[in-house]
Amino acid sequence: MARAAWPEDRPLPLPLATPPGDSARHEQQQAQARRRHVDALELSKSPRKGSKASRTAIASADESKMGVPSRTLAGATMVAAGIQFGWALQLSLLTPYIQELGIPHKWASLIWLCGPITGLVVQPCVGVWSDNCTHRWGKRRPFIVGGGVLVAIAVLLIAYSADIGYLLGDNLTSAGPRVHAIVVFVLGFWLLDLANNTVQGPVRALVADIAGPDQRGMGNAFYSLWMAVGNILGYSTGAIGKWHNWFPWLISAACEEPCANLKAAFMIAVSFLLLCLAVTFFSVKEPRLPPVLCQRAKRTTGEFDPLLNGSASADSLIQGSDQQAPPADGLSRRANSGDGLADAMQNRDGEEECRVTTGRLAAGGMKATLAAMVAEMQQMPRAMRAVMAVLALTWMAWFPFLLFDTDFMGREIYQGSPTGTEAAAALYQMGVREGALGLLLNSVVLGLTSLAVDALCSRWGPRQVWAASDLLLCACLASTGIITTAASKRIHVGGETRLFHPLWVRGAAVAIFGILGAPLAITFSVPYAMTADLTAETGGGQGLAMGILNLAIVVPQVLVSLLAGPWDALFGGGNEPAFLAGSAFALAGGVIGLLRLPNLRHSPSTVALHAGA
């Protein structure tokens, strides 16, 4: 039978006489007795059985076992559509736009360096902080809402960068770069990537929190589906060149028709994001992590954990009330065991209320968070290391295309230039808009494929599906070399040399954009489902795991952002050299994936692994 908590007004029992020379042990016993007394007082103040907090915790425990309705998963992930709307505009319009502001092509990729730098720090930290957030909204929703508001602010900065730059002193008649507009643009760009990373990790972790063991694949498929919806709407908005006619008040001295179109598109993106954010917020009711438990865990682990500043061990899972809780005097200090804390929460009558297992608490700010990440990576199982390696190679292949897809259409396919003659600039803008249409087709294919991901993985296994998607990515990127060669062919007509644009070249380019939606859906879904399953199997924190997985994305993006422009310039400019390098990385990812990825038996939602995988 569990002991009742020690009365608050009752003095501590006097310790027995201690033999001379054993004062150190005596002081340690006194300190432990005081800590047990304080812990018992805190636990005695826990919500009584039948209270609202108790009912919420127990209901959440039952949901974690049984899962949630599909509509809840769909609503919880809808914010991905709002985030992806702005991301689609960012991918399709901002690389051309920054060149119009005066940044040369070979340095345009450096603008994208903002994203991985913020992602390298922000998403892992947000993941750990959200694992242990005690806000009344729950663990994940405060970060989702805060990140969504930052996205809206960043989008407005980008949209009005030319106007703000003009107010700060940009010369519109000069042919050089608009320095002030570029500074405002980069500030908004940086903030946008920071905000995106703030939202994406908690949303992924929220899916892992609320989904049952057999629903994780479905949850990530819903996430990919909403991303496809956001892409479709975003690329459609970017492909329309008539927004300035419908919103003429957006045209200004510093912002002519192309700029006004971009401004209108981003205003629509903000409105759509706020709608999606509201749906996600009200679709899920997260249980509140008890503050008393976090405070006790921080105090307990701070003394023994080798990590600095009070970082402790991994996740917080509210388990069902049918499990037996230890008695109050059995609250052992297990910070140095690596298995986390198992604490019994009891009411004043000594009755069991619920059991909470906490792990990996980061209570020491940035330093403790980074220390927790390092410790987690050192203990990472071989299967998780393989997932990170293949994901890094996959994103090394993807980023050159994602950064320069519409620029590729404007430069290589239409042979235009954003800063050339009026005719060259017109050709470039035509290519950018057609590239946005290709990305729209890409999003349709991505959405359809995301619906089939679970079935594909159930039939062939996620390892084979992921590897096959990398090989398809390799083939598509390699084929852009053939199309570029055909698009740059010149013919002699009436004594003049003109570009020859066969219709099949443009059609093939758009077709490649569309086909790439299939491997992109796999990239957006299977790695995260694998990570959620592997983390659940080992009992780690989902937020921290998603943050660490993000390292396999942002590190490749840093490398591509730094090297893509100079690499292209080394081979004469354009985008084709980076695309062909991406093809080689995709080939490596596919081969290594077949050899090293964990072999899940059925689907991403299954945690059982084949022996020896």
Automatic annotation (TrEMBL):
Sorted UniProt keywords: Membrane, Transmembrane, Transmembrane helix, Transport
Bias type Basic and acidic residues, positions: 1-11
InterPro entries linked: MFS, MFS_trans_sf, Sulfatase_CS
Parts of the chain that traverse the membrane: 73-98, 110-130, 142-160, 180-199, 220-244, 264-284, 386-404, 435-453, 465-487, 507-531, 543-565, 577-595
GO molecular function terms attached to this record: sucrose:proton symporter activity
Compartment(s) of residence: Membrane
The protein's name in its UniProt record: Sucrose transporter
Protein species of origin: [Myrmecia] bisecta
